[in-house]
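Exercise 3.2. Students should predict the tertiary structure of the chain below and write it as structure tokens, then compare their answer with the key that follows.

Predict this chain's 3D structure.
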Amino acid sequence: MAEGSPTVRRRRLGLILREMREHTGMTGDEVGTAMERSASWVSRIEIGKQGMRIRDLRDLLALYEVNDEKLRSDLEELAREGKARGWWNKYGEAVTGPYSAYIGFEAEASELLSYETVVMPGLLQTEDYARALFSNVHPPHSGDQVEQRARIRMARQALLNRVDPVRLWAIMDESVVYRRIGDSQVMHDQLKHLIELAQLPNVTLQIAPFTAGAYPGAVHSFSVLRFPQAADPDLVYIEDWGGGAFAEGDDARRYHDVFNHLRAAALSPIQSVEMIRRELNAAA
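Answer key:
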């Protein structure tokens, strides 16, 4: 299993605290007033966007009349772990906002269901492909920014080869295979890399072909993250150029259903690799 992610710990703690608050019948405003904080502070804690000081946690548990010492101790440990720094924090401003949160969740996921409409899935990109991709964004990145973002993308891929690797099921629109990112050598190496990764036992790759016509999920890219602990419910990350957004609960279940429809509409894993191989040979 992956080392504990502070992002996941903050979310788990927040879910527990929200359930406790709802059990008391108190609103976020009422809790904020009692804690001499704002309602937005309560909200940030409950959605896991902000870490918690142990002192604040103890005051909150006292407010909720939580006297179980074992539970209090476990929650304090979650708070401590939630304040830790993830490996991605060393990259500073290159990893901020929703992308930073996504990497944190991804770091502890046991399964990723990824659908891409425009470019190769990040975990399956070569370094040169990632570099070419980051070299063509708006506003433009500096050379150092491009290199830093490419390094981050490569570091994320350690998930595929760790002791207990993440299970990745990636579906791509057929256009992704043909869309040229970088020069011909970059695309050649990228397609070859896809074929090699598809042989890993924890990686399943499918192509949604043009012949499938319109199908659910054809509008935007998204990823469903599933975690090893039942205390961490599924989470969906919806990508956009504005930084992305998260969905959970019923929305996450709907995206999971959409992904199942995509699986049914896509070529089989064997057929998908054959299509990639044909494009690789045609471009040779």
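Discussion points: The chain has a mean pLDDT of 92. The longest helix spans residues 6-24.
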